[in-house]
Amino acid sequence: MKVYIFGAYKDFRCMAGKCQATCCSGWKIVVDKEAYERFIELEDESLRADILSNIVEKDDVYSFKNMANGDCAMLDKDGLCRIQRNSDEKTLCNTCRKYPRLSFKDSDTMLLSMAASCPVVINYLCIQRYDDIWYQMTDDKKMYPVMLDDITGLSDEIYKFEQLFIKIQDKCFEKGDRLCELFYDFADIAVDMIIKCNDCVYLDGSFDIYEEQMDGHFFEEKYDRFIKLYGKNLFRFEKNYILYRILTAKYERSEQNTSERSYQIAGEIIMNRVIMLSLTQNEDFMDSIVQSVHWVYKAAVHGKISSSIMHKKVAEILSQ
């Protein structure tokens, strides 16, 4: 069996209270039945009562309550989880214990990946060399860098994505009016996702500039300034993100065909630019990209309803 590992997987360390975009906010955290039974048996009466009072059940699925701001009810103001603070990692539910690690397996391949909703992963993709994204583990447990072209079946995925993105760039990114229309359409998609999906909360400042009425020329000037300031760092991230997503999407969205996955990944990249253009007006690039990718990945990949909304509308817009 071939084993492929995302470069940051082995040495991952949670940022805990220093995390810029906590994984404990903005979505429903499901509690597996084993964890629920473990919570019931906790010796610490105070912790047990705290946990059980903040779990809700619907259709035989247990999950932690969310506060009005989207935070998990077990998250304290200092960014730390009360369960982990008062016990240990083994007490956590399966979702919290494993995140952001992901594992997938088919008949001849195992993939050990990570979720890009985690700032550790986002930072890794911002600074890493493109040839250090994926590794292959040999039978003797040694790891060697591997390029996607060397992985059976991915060369076609890479080619189709590259052709799609060239088409998008030629049609939209070289023309001010079309680019302006594209970004406003994506901002509308995001608003639609936020309205329809309880787990998809608004990211402060992410769509502020789209409340303005801008013609193509004025928008193009604003976008050109953005690219001059942040383009080098943004394009480096995007190159790494594409290498990361082409492989992970194959497993995370196995029901999609190659063309659908290409639209999905292209949509994630464009949505990130749409948010970044708004956030970087007054913010630091690294802080903005962490917030933006965290939101995009949670909405487009983790959220079943929001991801289906995004994929359908992205394919509709980009295929016109």
What features would you highlight for this structure?
320 residues; five-stranded mixed sheet; 11 helices; 8 strands; 10% strand; globular
Explain what you see.
The termini are far apart. Helices cover 52% and strands 10% of the residues. With 320 residues, it is α+β, with helices and mostly antiparallel strands. Helix 6 (155-173) crosses helix 9 (258-279) and helix 7 (176-196) packs across helix 8 (216-252). The strands form 2 sheets. It has a 5-stranded mixed sheet, with helices on one face. The chain has a 3-stranded antiparallel sheet with strand order 2-4-3. A hairpin with a 3-residue loop joins strand 5 (101-105) and strand 6 (109-114). The model has no long low-confidence stretch (mean pLDDT 87).
Question: How do the strands and helices of this protein lay out in sequence?
Answer:
Elements: E1 2-6, E2 30-31, H1 33-40, H2 45-53, E3 55-58, E4 61-64, H3 82-86, H4 94-98, E5 101-105, E6 109-114, H5 119-127, E7 134-137, E8 143-145, H6 155-173, H7 176-196, H8 216-252, H9 258-279, H10 285-302, H11 304-318
Parallel strand pairs: 1-6
Antiparallel strand pairs: 1-7, 2-4, 3-4, 5-6, 7-8
Please sum up the structure shown.
The protein has eleven helices and eight strands.
Give the beta-strand count. 8
What's the mean pLDDT score? 87
Low-confidence stretches: none
Helix content: 40-55%
Distance between the termini: 42 Å
Count the DSSP helices.
11
What is the 3D form?
Answer: globular
The portion of residues forming beta strands comes to 5-15%
Biggest β-sheet strands, sense, barrel: 5 strands, mixed
Biggest sheet: strands side by side, in what order? 5-6-1-7-8
Query: What pattern of helices and strands is seen along the backbone?
Result: EEHHEEHHEEHEEHHHHHH
Radius of gyration: 20 Å
Secondary structural class: alpha+beta
